[in-house]
């Protein structure tokens, strides 16, 4: 009996790893943020429905990526923990899992929120994610921006599930775009040696970066990060200067956001390694997620912002606690 339970537990963990559900909170955050910015008020029940849709959407794309890259992963010892590489899950079963998640995502989207624009948005996001997994990863600039476009579509999807798009939806979607641009860029910086080996055209590879080089104002990668930060700040500030919402969010941004951004620019200056590129996004993405939901502080209040952020962080923590992650490099 204990052996059966252990086998079942291992099987579940393997499929959670296959779907990269460790990071599903990112997909959920984009959709939920969109829902909060719409003309309607999202309820706790809506949050639960959107979480289910996000889980299946993320698992579909995550497993698809694992399925597509199985041959490359087998040639890298650092990926020998992956279920497909180890043979714990067969390619056939992985494909069945991908199709199951895709069908569930579509069915739940139609059942919960049968609106045309929301359906089109999530289907387009799925198409872009699929192209990224099978081809876009090896197309210059598409690697950098395809997932960001997907994030924009997820924000729009969330906004159109129960209400309509607002000006704050557009601001949130553009901020989500640049946050995902950063995420892809920092991953490319961390994995530059592997990406160069497999001809993945990240900015780090194209601009000749390696971990033995110093980042400075002469390095395009360093300037690229500053451009991302400035772009986010400009877009994020627009509701304040256009007086679209109360200024509370902007004061929080000035007190918390700007100092963190300055600190992260400072920390990026100089010689970096894989460990520093792991730590950098923890503070950047954590603070940006917080500030993204601060955009709707008038609607969900500070407690709503903190509870939402606690859920996102808690999701990652629980998966880490049970050692269900998709990256050990």
- Number of separate helices: 15
Runs in which pLDDT lies below 50 for 5 or more consecutive residues are: none
Strand content: under 5%
**CATH level 1 name:** Mainly Alpha
Widest sheet: strand ordering: 1-2
Corresponding CATH architecture:
Orthogonal Bundle
Q: Write down the overall mean pLDDT.
A: 92
Give the strand tally: 2
CATH superfamily: UbiA prenyltransferase
Rg, alpha carbons: 20 Å
Question: Helical residue percent?
Answer: over 70%
* H/E element order: HHHHHHHHHHHEHHEHH
- Derived from helix and strand composition plus strand pairing, the structural class reads mainly alpha
Tell me the span between the first and last alpha carbons: 35 Å
Biggest sheet descriptor: 2 strands, antiparallel
CATH fold annotation: Tetracycline Repressor, domain 2
The general outline is: globular
């Amino acid at each position: 009996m204990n052996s059966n339970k252990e086998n079942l537990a291992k099987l579940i963990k393997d499929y959670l790893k296959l779907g990269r559900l460790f990071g599903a909170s990112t997909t959920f955050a984009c959709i939920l943020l969109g829902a909060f910015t719409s003309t309607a008020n999202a309820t706790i029940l809506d949050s639960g429905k959107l979480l289910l849709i996000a889980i299946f959407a993320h698992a579909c794309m995550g497993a698809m990526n694992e399925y597509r890259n199985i041959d490359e992963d087998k040639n890298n010892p650092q990926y020998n923990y992956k279920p497909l590489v180890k043979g714990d899950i067969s390619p056939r079963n992985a494909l069945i899992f991908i199709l199951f998640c895709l069908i569930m995502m579509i069915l739940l989207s139609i059942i919960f929120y049968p609106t045309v624009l929301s359906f089109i948005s999530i289907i387009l996001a799925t198409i872009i994610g699929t192209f990224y997994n099978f081809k876009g990863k090896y197309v210059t600039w598409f690697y950098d921006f395809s997932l960001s476009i997907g994030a924009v579509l997820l924000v729009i999807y969330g906004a159109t599930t129960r209400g309509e798009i607002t000006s704050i939806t557009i601001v949130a979607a553009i901020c989500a775009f640049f946050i995902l641009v950063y995420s892809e860029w920092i991953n490319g910086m961390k994995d530059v040696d592997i990406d160069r080996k497999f001809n993945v055209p990240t900015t780090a590879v194209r601009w000749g970066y390696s971990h033995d080089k110093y980042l400075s104002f002469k390095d395009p990668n360093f300037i690229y990060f500053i451009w991302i930060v400035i772009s986010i700040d400009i877009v994020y500030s627009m509701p304040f200067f256009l007086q679209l919402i109360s200024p509370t969010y902007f004061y929080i941004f000035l007190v918390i956001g700007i100092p963190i951004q300055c600190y992260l620019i400072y920390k990026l200056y100089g010689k970096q390694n894989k460990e520093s590129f792991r730590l950098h996004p923890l503070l950047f993405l954590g603070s940006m997620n917080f500030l993204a939901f601060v955009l709707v502080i008038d609607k969900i209040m500070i407690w709503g912002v903190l509870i939402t952020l606690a859920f996102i962080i808690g999701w990652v923590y629980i998966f880490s606690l049970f050692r269900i992650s998709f990256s050990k490099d």
